[in-house]
Amino acid sequence: MTLPFLIHRRTVLGALAALSSGLAAAQGKPETLRIGLQKSSTLTTILRTRGTLEQLLAPLNVKVSWHEFTSGLPLLEALNLGNIDVSADVADTVPVFAQAAGANLTFVAQESPSPAAQAIVVRADSPIKTVADLKGKKIGFAKAAGVHFLLIAALEKSGLTFKDIEPAYLTPADGRAAFERGAIDAWVVWDPFLAAVQKQSAVRVLADGRDLASYQRYYLAGTPYAKARPDVLGVFFHELQKAGAWVKQSPKDAAALLAPVWGLDAGVIELANSRRSYEVRAVVPTSLAEQQRIADAFLAEKLLPRRVNALDVPLFKPGA
Prior knowledge:
Helix content is about 45%, strand content about 20%. It is of the alpha/beta class. The protein has a six-stranded mixed sheet, sandwiched between helices. The protein has a five-stranded mixed sheet with strand order 7-6-8-5-9, with helices on both faces. Helix 3 crosses helix 11, helix 3 (about 40-50) packs across helix 12 and helix 9 (about 195-200) crosses helix 13 (about 265-275). The longest helix is centred in the C-terminal third of the chain and has 20 residues, at about 230-250.
């Protein structure tokens, strides 16, 4: 099912979820906070591995369940369907597609910019030397991910449009396989997948997000849940902040913790984490300017069904 189809059911499902939540609380039964995440959801993975939220939410009579997704778009589809309550970080592009489909979502938190944490790469022996050389080439990337906007911005800067390339919408795992067997000419990807291919294969970076795409990542919740359980979201927000500070202060310890969970070398993870800000902050209207630029770029390429107002979204206020 597609996101637009799922949106129509969101209001009813949200109301049923809120009713169920209220009945559970009244009967003294534990509620379950369902969190969706990706492999690149570093801070949420740390909380999951440590069991931090389970410990802190137990006094609120809340349990936690975890649900992994391949990329941001299916993650927000699940959030809109009501299959999860909270989304771990997704790239700044993903909420734009959700807004265009009429999603009933609340922005919970934002990571400050990490432009070098995503890039366009080619094989080291590729004849492609500049972004302009991508004209007519087959390029792999995840649809609606941050790299989607990076590619559009890089092409525009080089005098090209999205119509000048052949897109191949691929998950990170499928993108890596296609890239290494030569089925695509270039791959646009984010960390830790970017760091992994840089460490393990002979590649060149054509461009990263610097001066092109800020790459801010967002944490979201279904609006009915945000209204019903601001106390739970407050705990989630503050623990994300603590985890982000710990990753930057203790990079080797963080890499050692994540290595067995992700199945990646600690050196790969440390490189990836060095390019992410992990500064978790509240979302305020002034910080959404990049969101509008992203939305307008996708609309210009006819990749969105309608214009999106980036400010037309509820914002969670920690401590409110």
